[in-house]
Amino acid sequence: MCPFKMLTRMVYGVTLFYFMFALWHATTNLTDFLKGPLRFLTMWNMLLQTAFIAICLLNSFIGSNEINPKSKPPIRKLRDTIMAGIAFPMALFVSLMFWGIYAIDRELIFPRALESQHSSWLNHAVHTSPMVFVIVQMYASYHAYPSRKTGVTMTAVFLGTYIGWLHVVRARTGVWVYPFLEMLGFPQRLLFFTFSMGLGILLNLLGEQLNNGIWRSAVKKRKQKA
107 and 35 in contact (C-beta within 8 Å)? Predict the structure, then answer.
């Protein structure tokens, strides 16, 4: 077996275990959708990234990491589509939004009162490590991006669904999931949600450009050989 392929599988396996361990610590009372951890985009993203790592691991066994395989397995197509449409943009979105707001005023996003429930390692596990993983994955393997329309639509639908869920929770409980939303009037919230959607789409396009830039020469050489 190729040493690189063996190393890749080991990294996938360890990362999958790490994410599952973090989820086990971070998720309690999953049956309460309105007051439990599934209120937070962080948990949506962690579940997404954990599933994505599992798909990457499965692809390393029954799929293909070749730049342009003659017959692309369905698991490879699934991996590439998820990476493009939601895994990459959402991993960066969650990290950038969380740490950006945290830098302005941590009480707006992660009050000190929560430190007793979430240790420092867990905070980084759910807010930092997914971004690190998808960037490493981007450099480790070429991803055949779907059409831009498909990728952008996936990002917009995912974010739009969560924004809708925020409003459902607000309507049912009378409280916004994130404290800073309580401080915003309707025009400011509308501006924030519009900005969020725009940022998500921008990160989708960034992923496409990054993937093309990293693998441009390798793809060109592969086409010349073909």
Answer: no
pLDDT 10s digits, 65-80: 888 888 889 999 999 9
Nearest CA to 89 among 144, 153, 141?
Answer: 153
Taking CB atoms within 8 Å and a gap of at least 24, the contacts of 62-69 are: 65/5, 65/8, 65/141, 65/142, 67/142, 67/215, 67/218, 67/219, 67/222, 68/144, 68/219, 68/222, 68/223, 68/226
Tokens of 86: 């939601």
Write the CA distances from 32 to 29, 60, 132, 187, integer angstroms.
6, 36, 30, 30
Residue 66 tokens read as 């070749």
DSSP 110: S
Q: At what angle do helices 41-62 and 129-140 cross, to 10 degrees?
A: 30
Sequence-separated (6 or more) residues with CB below 8 Å from residue 79? 52, 55, 56, 59, 63, 143
d(CA 8, CA 166) in angstroms, rounded, equals 37
d(CA 40, CA 53): 20
pLDDT in tens, 68-127: 888 889 999 999 999 999 999 999 999 999 999 999 988 888 877 776 667 778 888 999
Q: How many CB atoms lie within 10 A of CB 191?
A: 12
